[in-house]
Amino acid sequence: MQTDALLQAPPQRRKRIATDKDADRRRELGQFLTPDPVAKFMASLFRTHDRDVHLLDAGAGAGALSIALVRHFCRQPRPPERISLTAFEIDPILLPLLTITLEQCKKECREAGIQFSATVFSENFIKTATAMVGRDLFAISPLRFNAAIVNPPYRKIRGDSSERRLLRRVGIEASNLYTGFVTLITRLLTGGGELVGITPRSFCNGPYFKPFRAEFLETMALQQLHVFESRTAAFKKDNVLQENVIFHAVKGTSKPDNVIISSSSGQPGGEVSERGMKYTSLVNPDDPEQFIHLTVNDSQARARLAIGQLSASLSELDLSVSTGRVVDFRAREFLRDHPGQNSVPLVYPCHFNGGFVHWPKGKSRKPNAIECNDITRGLLVPAGVYVLVKRFSPKEGPRRIVACIWDSGQVPAALVGFENHLNYFHINGCGMSLPLARGLAAFLNSTVLDIYFRQFNGHTQVNATDLRNLKYPTKTQLERIGHKICKFELPREGLDPIVEIELF
Ligand SMILES: C[S@@+](CC[C@H](N)C(=O)[O-])C[C@H]1O[C@@H](n2cnc3c(N)ncnc32)[C@H](O)[C@@H]1O
C-alpha cells in the first residue's frame, strides 16, 4: 500500500486500508489498533494532570490513544497548559496516519488554549527505551513522562531474540513484547505519573509473568482494572482471541486501600458496572506468586470468600502436581494407535469422559499407547490412581478446570504415560487412594472453584503453578467427599452440593 494512497483516502477508509494490510505482517508487529470507544474509555480513566503534561504513547499506531487522551485533557474544567507528546511507532506505513492524527491533536489543543508539541520516533521502542533506562552512553538523554497510554504489541519473544537480549541488559525478563513495553514505560514514568494500558490478561497469573508482576506491583499502584465480558468484543474486527484487561496505575509504592474493578460487554456504548475491592484481596500480600484476582460480581465475591476459608496447601496434603512428560511429537516413533505387546496406556485429554478416563478410545485421532523401553521409561509413571487436569480450556467452556481420574485398577499395566497437555496430581511420583482422588477431582470440578479460578486466570491455560498455588480442603475433608461420591460417574451438578455441604 502506497502511503500517498493512504493520505488521500477519507478517514474511515484510511483506517481500513491500514488495518487490512497483510495479516502476517500485522501479527509480527503485534498490530491491533484500538477501536475509538475503547480508546475514549481508557482516556477517561486518567484522574489528574500536571500543568505540563509529558505524554508517552509507545507503539502509537495511527494515534488512536493519543488523540483520545488529548481530547480528554482538552475537555477538563482546568486543562493543562502544555502537552508534549512523544510517540514511538516502528511501522513506516502507519506514520502518515499518525502525523495526520497529531495535526488534529494540535488543532484541538489550540482551540482549548493548550500548547501542543509532538515528537515521533519511528524506531524500535525496546531498543531506544532500554538504552535510555540503561543510561547507555550513546542514548538520547532519558526522557521522563508523567502520563502514558499504551496498547503495546502482543507477541511472544524467544529467549534468543534481540528484544530479549536488550531487555535482559536492563534486568527485564519478558516472555512477551507487551510486558517488555509496559515495564519500560513504568521505568520512564516520574513519581505520581499515570499509566493506562490495554493488554492481554495473561500477566495476572502464570509463572512466565512472575518477574513482570513483581516489578510492576512493586513500583506501580493499581487504581482500576476493567474487563470485558466477551473475550473477542473489544477487538472483534481483528479476531483477537486473547482476553484483555484495561488497567490504570500510578507510579509509586504506596498502594490504595481499594481498587475499582469494572466490567462491560465490550460493545460500543455498553454499560460499565463497577465494584470496589480491597487492594489486599486483589493481590494477597502473602502470595509469593503475586497473582492478581479480579472479582467482578457478587457470585465471584462469594466464591472468593468460600475458597479463602480453605487452608491446606498442596504440600500439606503430601500431594504434588506435574505436567505430563510425554511430548508426543518428540516421542513419535514410540506412539501406538492401539495397545499391544510392549506398550503401556498413553492418556490424552481426548480420553476424558465424565469424571473418569475412558481408555482405550476406539475411534481416536490420538494414539492410545506408547512403547515401553529404556528411552520412554523415564516419561512414564507407575500404575495407580491419579487426578488429571486438562492444561487448556477456553473461557467459553463450562469449566476452566476439567479434572478426571485415572485408575490403573481398571487397566492391567504396570506403567502409564500422561501426555503433555495434561497436569497430574500425585504423591511423590506415585498414585493416591481412590477416595482422596475422588474428593480432589470433585473439588477441582466444582462450580465454586471454577468461579474463583476465573478471577485470576484469564487465558486458556491451566498451569501447574496455578494448581500448586491454590488452597485445598484438608485431606480428611477430601476423603469424606470422595466416600460420598459413590456413583461411578456422577453428573457435575450432583457434585456441587456434596462439595459445598462438606466445605462451607
Ligand atoms: C497493538 S498496536 C496498538 C496501536 C495503537 N497504540 C492503538 O492503540 O491503536 C501496537 C503498535 O506497536 C507497533 N510496534 C510493534 N513493535 C514495536 C516496536 N518495537 N517499537 C515501536 N512500535 C512497535 C506496531 O506497529 C503497532 O502499531
Tell me what you see in this structure:
The chain contains 17 helices and 20 strands. The chain has 504 residues and is an alpha/beta fold. It folds into two domains: 22-258, Vaccinia Virus protein VP39 (Rossmann fold), CATH 3.40.50; 315-503, DNA methylase specificity domains (Adenine-n6-DNA-methyltransferase TaqI, Chain A, domain 2, Alpha-Beta Complex). The strands form four sheets. Strands 3-2-1-4-5-7-6-8-9 form a nine-stranded mixed β-sheet. It has a five-stranded mixed β-sheet with strand order 11-15-12-19-16, with no helix packed on it. β8 and β9 form a beta hairpin. It is elongated and about 80 Å long. The model is unreliable at 1-14 (pLDDT under 50). Bound molecules: S-adenosylmethionine (SAM).
